[in-house]
Amino acid sequence: MRIKFWQKTLAALLVVGVLPIAFVNAVSIQGTRDRLTELGVTNIRERAVSTANAIDSYLQGPLGDVVLVSKLPAVIAYAQNVNDPDLRRAAREVLAAASARSVNYESIAIVSIDGTISAASITTDEGTNVRFRDYFLNARAGLSYISDPSYSVITNKPALFFSAPIATTSGLVVGVARMRANLSGIWDLVEADSGSVGVGSHGFLVDDYGIRLAVSETKGHRAQAESLIYKPIAAIDPEVAKKLAADKRFGQKTPDQLVLDPLPPLKDAIDRQADSATLAYNSGSAEQRAVAARMHTKPWTYTLAVPLATYTSSADDSTVSVALAAAVGILLAAIVSLLLTRSIVGPLRRLAGQAQLMSSGTVDIETAAFEDVKGDDVTHEVATAFDRLGNALRYYAATRGEAPAGDLR
Known about the structure:
alpha+beta
């Protein structure tokens, strides 16, 4: 296929003018976008680590209080003789006083060595057997313990449980001090990250099995909290599922009834036990950048995520502007090439047509003229050259007394 002159002109204008400018701008915008992303990730990391540390610090408070309760003389005395009503009365008083230290403390209790709650700040808790709970088993073994959020068998609501062994001066464990605390303290910290580092930013806390324990979406929607948490980021191992079911972690639900909300990059970070990890994933149609920070008090991971467009929107807007400018540049180049080629090619075509007529004898050589064809300097020079050629032919014909040869027609 023959390439026309205007197409060549357009290609030249694009190669020399429009494309280099578009390329330079595209590279510059991508560099700006990368720097904005890097700055955003740094900002996210600082906030994520800060919130993870805040949750760590918060957990130490209730744990310290329950350890303190386990060492109170009235508590130790009653744990050694749970049938004494006077000792029970004294124990209830100190338990109620300890429970009043925070609005997040729902109940503090003494659990006998057989797993039965024998005295509590809320007397309706008494008589409940919790021997299957991890917090009881660990404390009875002599360890202070913080549970994962679990449904209480008493309130049937998710709660945190803190426990510590009650031991005699000789070190013999005679019972367990147990605290039940609501999740408001943790939820407050996680919800505070909603929009904290940009529009659309949100945080969520997962345990070492990848089960969501808190999400910032509960802000203003605490009534729907139970439908927003307990969503695993990956399938739960069957052996782990049995353990969670035995602990009644999810109340009447079993692990296989939980709604799976997969997030492979976070699962990989948890498996690697990285102190912090940068994640990139899609949520719906929005690309997300996130930082996962591992906690220390519990093997939990706090993740703060932000839509990438929150940081790169200015660069993205520039990309649109450059694309529009390139489109306008291409349009102008096309118009210029058409006008330019028309001003050159049109007159040249007329010259060629007239020369063709003269050579074929259709136009009398004596009357043929080219200088009346208007055009640019080049066209004028070509027309003048044709006129000189015509004059030479006329002179030749006149001096020889004959018509021009056939091959000159």
